[in-house]
Design goal:
The complex is a heterodimer of chains A (133) and B (383).
Chain A (H helix, E strand, L loop, with lengths): L10 E5 L3 H13 L3 E5 L2 H10 L3 E7 L8 H7 L8 E6 L13 E5 L4 H20 L1
Parallel strand pairs in A: 1-2, 1-3, 3-4, 4-5
Chain B lengths: L11 H9 L10 H14 L3 E7 L3 E8 L5 E3 L5 H6 L3 E4 L12 H4 L6 E8 L5 E9 L7 H69 L3 H24 L4 E3 H9 L9 E4 L4 E3 H20 L9 E9 L2 E9 L12 H13 L2 E8 L2 E8 L15
Helix pairs in contact in B: 2-5, 5-6, 6-7, 6-8, 7-8, 8-9
The chains are: A alpha/beta (133), B alpha+beta (383).
Keywords (chain A): Phosphoprotein, Transcription, Transcription regulation
InterPro entries (chain A): Bact_response_regulator (IPR050595), CheY-like_superfamily (IPR011006), Sig_transdc_resp-reg_receiver (IPR001789)
Organism (chain A): Methylobacterium indicum
Amino acid sequence: MGQSSRHSHFAVLIVEDDALGRAEAVDLCEEAGFTTHEARDADEALLQLERHPEIRVLFTDIEMPGTMDGLTLAHGMQGRRPPLSIIVTSGRIMVAEKDLPRNGLFVAKPYPPDAILRALHDIAAGLGDEAGR
Amino acid sequence: MSVPIDPPCDGEAERSAALHAYRLLDAPREQDFDDIAHMASRVCETPMAVVNLVDTRRQFFLAEVGLGVRETPLDTSFCGHAILEEDVLVVPDARRDPRFDGNPLVHGTAGLQFYAGAVLKTPDGQSVGTMCVLDTKPRQLTALQIDMLRFLARQAMTQMELRRSLAVRDRLLVEARAAETRRRDLAHEMAHRMKNLLSMVQAVATQTLRQSTSMEEGRLAISQRLTALARAQDILTLSDYEEATICEVVAATIAPHQTADRRIRSCGPDMLLTSQQALGLSLAIHELATNAAKYGALSNGSGTVDVGWTNEHGTFVFDWIERGGPAVVAPQRRGFGSKLIERIVASYFNGEGRIDFAPGGIAFRLVGKPDARPVGRVKAGDP
């Protein structure tokens, strides 16, 4: 499975409390050509977002330990500059489109890797346009 | 004062239980029973009529006309006598009846002199009360009036039965609804756990394939890893998927790799594992044992493995120590197996794992603080 480094200057922040799920998400994002950062809960995620302005995609689980769930985190990030593309996933909760933040996509767990890859490629294409302007 | 009724006789407890089953003692007034009392009063032309429930120490007036009270003690009761009768008791003039000598209701200011009561009998034949009429002057009832009193007694009983049936139905409905809610909650929870497990299976499968050099190697590794997961799942099934003890998990995971001369030895205090820890530890032991059988202490006839753990002061330490195997050569490439046991499984114990490829034998140590992170999960709130 070839890796592309086309957009490796853009990063995905993976927020997932389950280490196995996190490892899987890291591989997927790297396969799509992104650099990755990891967080186990929303508090760690906020720290990472502050530290790494190159993070342009938030890929988050909903149910997590800690003070905030992934959906709340995603909504809180809507005004961020530069803007974040958001992928929300959950095995328990189905999120309707109207409850998603702008630039948000919901994928139910267990998610088909292809769906995530496609979404990441679309996001990468958008970011490429932005970089080319 | 004389007590006209003998103390509770045979079957009194059963009779009282039958009465209490209707749950009508101290019930509020109801039109249906009031109507029956009024009908009795009108038909028998008496100023007083009562639908009376007779308990062991008191009588409760489910409906009454002309008395103005809803309860009296039993020791002065007329109805206590009627209960002992098979069908209908008529006392035309209580002043001349030796059974009511000294009864204050007869000889005091109330001056009750006439009484007629028909027994309220349950479908099982228990006498639980009376439909009675009273007067302050002596009188007789016609055969028609006595028949009507009997009919009204039966009517009162029918109304009581109806209420009991409705109460039973309501209770069954409530129970059925509660059972349905429990069933739905359980199904929901099961679906969630199933999805978690499927996510885990998917991750194990894709990660294994990603790192396999051939289809055959990948196929074998996936099926073995899933078998290890299935064994842990068996243990969890016995405890409603909530938790498992470490001894059960270790024993079940070691079993398929154990040698005839039992060269895998395990020792440690029993403790409860969450479902995630149980599944993770099973995978870790599976990885270590598979590697030991291929390259390590279980690949020759004499090597041994010591599996041990401690859990003291909130710190969990798990050791896998191989001795007596062929000389260890550290692998050039760290596969999914290493990542699984060093990082992934260790994270379930909120700790870290490390494989030491010492020449004398592989040693794996996991150190974690399983309770350091909150166990509860945040529910998704409304955005």
